[in-house]
Amino acid sequence: MRLTRRSLVAASMAAPLIARPLHAQGTWPQRQIRWVVPFPPAGTADILSRLLAERVAARLGQPVVVDNRAGAGGTIAGALVAQARGDSHIVMVSNFAPHGVSPSLFANIGYDAERDFTHMALFGALPMVIAVNPNLPAQNIQEFIALARQRGAALNMAYGGNGTASHLIGLIFHRAAGISPTFVPYRGAGPALVDVLAGTVECIIETLPAALGHIRAGRLRALAVSSAARSIVLPDVPTFTEIGLAEATGVNWFGFCGPAGLPEPIVARWLQELREVLNMPEVRDRLVELGVEGTSLDPAATAAFVGREVARWRQVVRENNVTAS
After folding, report:
1. Three-state SS at 251
2. What is the per-residue pLDDT across 50-84, written as a single tens digit (0 to 9) for each?
3. CB 3.0–4.6 Å: which of 110, 181, 185, 242 could bond 79 by disulfide?
């Protein structure tokens, strides 16, 4: 089962929260909470974290400090939190990178993405979008696939680095569509977009928020999104499923976890506060602006989803000999 806006909402509704007293743990939280982000400041994970952490702190009555620990595909942050087993005052943003693909890309990362965390929630998903320079003679995804089959390796597609969501979802899209363009890696979405806008590279597969401004301004033409359901910010753009490539469906996702072994009452309290914050109108509006879709506050469903992601991307990494460099 893929992570979709509909499935996340359904999972959240199917698992109502029952708050429990924290007698066994005493009063919690007892001190400052550390909210670890596995990426640098100013990215979607950081913006999302600061949006939520500020409001959760006001409700918990203790500071919630966002700690950016970027590097090594999110594994630096992952190891930090995994090794804090028993500490109920540290949490992190789980993600496609540290909890999906990095376990297959890096050796000796210092944690097991499934067993070493208490996976609590999914904040939502970021679809990939296939977009082209407007000068490319492809008005829709069907024309693009036909052109790509005709040109083969002469067609260039940019992506934001090896092992990223854009890279791996791009690989499975190429296989499903029967195309073999030249995949051009960049160090992040910014440099990749610069070259596509300039026409140096004809097309790109990238997270929707990174490309959305250029799409709205007409500097890029969006052809398809990788989510199972159409994006709320690009409702006229078809999905991979709609064009018959459901096997290529995939998203970059953001979740929430702590070290393994968090007591159930503390998990329940986190979910209670996150539910209240996520229902705030200004938070809902900001998530829409970021292009983040769907929320689930179901720990069992979240843990199962992470397990499926680890298994899926392990297979893709091995089949395509993907490396981190």
Report:
1. strand
2. 999 999 999 999 999 999 999 999 999 999 999 99
3. 110
- Which amino acid, 190? G
Q: How far apart are the first and last CA of the chain?
A: 30
When computed from its CA atoms, the radius of gyration of the chain, rounded to whole angstroms, is 20
Closest alpha carbon to 96 in 50, 130, 127, 118: 127
Q: How far is CA 215 from the centre of its chain?
A: 20
CB of 297 within 8 A of CB of 275?
yes
CA proximity to 196, closest of 206, 204, 185, 207: 204
Two structure tokens written together for 181: 């363009």
205 forms beta bridges with 130
Tokens for 232? 């709320």
Residue in 114, 71, 65, 64 with CA at minimum distance from that of residue 94: 114
For residues 110 and 275, what is the distance between their CA atoms, to the nearest angstrom?
A: 31
Phi and psi angles of residue 204, each rounded to the nearest 5 degrees, phi first? -150, 150
pLDDT-derived band at 10 (thresholds 50, 70, 90) equals very low
Distances (CA, A) of 238 to 4, 181, 230: 15, 21, 6
The answer to whether 220 and 138 are in contact (CB under 8 A) is no
**Rounded to whole angstroms, what are the CA distances from 22 to 26, 32, 59, 210?**
6, 18, 16, 41
For residue range 122-140, what is the model confidence (pLDDT) as tens digits?
998 999 999 999 999 999 9
Q: Rounded to an integer, what distance in angstroms lies between the CA atom of residue 97 and that of residue 104?
A: 10
**Which residue is it, tokens 């965390």?**
117
CA of 244: how far to CAs of 142, 170, 223, 239, 241, in Å? 11, 16, 14, 9, 5
Band (pLDDT 50/70/90 cuts) for residue 290 is confident
One-letter amino acid at 140 equals N
Place of tokens 């609590």: 120
Cα torsion at 181, 99, 69, 167 (round to 10°)?
A: 0
